[in-house]
Specification:
The structure is a single chain. Helices cover about 40% and strands about 20% of the residues. The chain is α+β, with helices and mostly antiparallel strands. It has two domains: about 5-80, no CATH class; about 90-280, no CATH class. The strands form four sheets. The chain has a five-stranded mixed sheet with strand order 3-4-6-9-11. A hairpin with a 3-residue loop joins strand 3 and strand 4.
Length: about 290
């Protein structure tokens, strides 16, 4: 398959791959992307800026064209899903992604960077947000005005995998539309941590796109208050799903009350050090 045959069909954009000669007579690939609709001009500039960022440091023109086409495929999937809601994420989506990114940022302190990005399964809508060889982590995010209760998506989410540990990380925060930290702020911080590891950065952005987050940010950003964040950790026992099995077998959404859990399993209310201990055991493998 030639490079031109790999070009995706992008809604609202015209994509062409031609050849041009440089001043030395060398034939070079020339990738042209044109926005078809005036109302998408601003977004067209965002996409171009993303390509520039993604191709930074590549000296080969051919390699740059190949990388740009790979990026186009990522954007093409995003266009198909989100062409009517570009730059926007609702409050629940922003809150959920912020919680996962805050946890991901923690994990980057304890394990090899690429392994953490690979283990991040939230964008793939799997049963647990982070999956390592011997331990899984599920992240739940609440606002300060919500009760200490979260919705569990089926029994698999409260069932530790065979011969693996399962921890819940509950994060509770204050949010508004004026002051605090945005998704873009924490993403930039993670980028700094990953600096120099281009493969990890590329995979990180690929997963952000799956979460419907445009790489250049969103217009309706919510602010999360750093000083009003409360964290709780729970080690989920294998017996929890057994006890709840009969009554919840056919239910998709199950309430998980941190208060009731702490009453029934006080010994399983834990902390970051204990939860990360299982990850650090396999650090050499990662």
């Amino acid at each position: 398959m030639t490079i031109s045959q790999q070009l995706p069909s992008c809604k609202g954009f015209e994509v062409k791959l031609t050849e041009v000669k440089d001043k030395f007579g060398n034939i070079l690939p020339n990738l042209t992307i044109v926005g078809k609709q005036n109302k998408q001009n601003e977004f067209h500039l965002y996409v171009m800026n993303d390509f520039i960022m993604f191709a930074d440091g590549i000296s080969s023109n051919s390699e740059m064209a190949i990388r740009a086409i790979e990026r186009l495929h990522e954007w093409s999937e995003y266009f198909d899903r989100c062409s009517d809601t570009l730059f926007k994420m609702d409050g629940n989506a922003q809150r959920g992604l912020y919680g996962e990114l805050r946890f991901l940022e923690k994990l980057l302190m304890y394990a090899e960077h690429m392994a953490v990005i690979v283990a991040w399964r939230g964008p793939e809508k799997q049963s647990h947000d982070f999956k390592f060889p011997t331990v899984h982590y599920e992240v739940k995010t609440l606002t300060v005005d919500q009760a200490d209760k979260v919705s569990i998506n089926g029994m698999a989410q409260i069932t530790p995998p065979k011969e693996k540990e399962l921890f819940f990380y509950l994060i509770k925060m204050d949010v508004n539309e004026n002051t605090g930290e945005t998704l873009q702020d924490i993403i930039r911080r993670i980028e700094v941590t990953l600096e120099g590891d281009n493969e990890a950065i590329a995979l990180f952005w690929k997963k952000l796109l799956k979460m419907n987050y445009p790489t250049t940010g969103i217009h309706n950003a919510i602010y999360f208050h750093e000083l009003l964040i409360h964290e709780r950790w729970y080690r989920i026992p294998s017996t929890l799903s057994d006890i709840e099995h009969d009554s919840c077998l056919r239910m998709k959404n199950i309430d998980f009350s941190s208060f009731l859990f702490e009453q029934s399993y006080p010994e399983n209310t834990t902390n970051e050090k204990e939860a990360i201990r299982y990850l650090k055991k396999q650090k050499k493998i990662l």
